[in-house]
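Journal club prep, notes for RB
We'll compare a predicted complex against what the paper describes. Inputs for the magnesium ion case:
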Amino acid sequence: AGKTTVLEQIKATFLGREPMPPAKIAPTVGLNIGRLQVRRCKLICWDLGGQAALRAIWEKYYSEAHGLIYVVDAADTERIDESRNVLHALLGHPDLAGIPLLLLANKQDAQGALSPHEVEARFGLQQVLETSQPRQVFGTAALTGERIEESIHWLVEALRDSPRIG
Ligand SMILES: Nc1nc2c(ncn2[C@@H]2O[C@H](COP(=O)(O)OP(=O)(O)OP(=O)(O)O)[C@@H](O)[C@H]2O)c(=O)[nH]1
Ligand SMILES: [Mg+2]
């Protein structure tokens, strides 16, 4: 979907260095970590592998997470329902109750990509989120960095107001 490419763009944007060339980014098997500071908020980003066989380890990270960035390949319309189901299952986990959710409808540069509004409608988030749970959908293109900075600024503001940080 582009999680590691997103993390590289986040690091490039907020640490002011060149992102890793996309051709060098392999599917994630272990864990990539990004540490950065955004508007006096220290962020530690954990980027996990999305392959089905690797999803079982995600839940080891839930209890210590303050926010969730969920990256969807908006151009992969055949698997968008699978992505929605995986997110719904995630959000049903008690350790993620009320967590601020940043949903990135990624690959907006690709032909046939669903718009952020279409992804939002397709995902039916109100079925699985608490009424006051902070959530926002951004249409991003991680390859070029489009909308990455704005989306992280939104998340940082949501985290500031979050009861998960105490
Ligand atoms: N066109 C386009 N391709 C993208 C974009 N973001 C990522 N990609 C490509 O999508 C593929 C997968 O990107 P990754 O960042 O490795 O995806 P991932 O979600 O980390 O994948 P796993 O680690 O296997 O879970 C690569 O070929 C990327 O170059 C984007 O915004 N637009
Ligand atoms: Mg990856």
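Talking point for the session: The radius of gyration is 15 Å.
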